[in-house]
What we know:
Helices cover 27% and strands 23% of the residues. It is an alpha+beta fold.
Amino acid sequence: MVRKCLVANIPVMVSRGATTTLAIGIAEKTGVCVIGFVRSTKMNIYTHPEHVQGAPSFPQ
Length: 60
């Protein structure tokens, strides 16, 4: 799915479920923000949190 987002120029990918380590690796290198386990007001931001307004930024 990350590759499809890259081809379509979509900068943020959101999923209700988990993501793979391969997807996270590709997203890190290419600048795609991957968000998983989205439930009501909670979510896990795996890559590039700067794409999400109000998200905490952690040093890399």
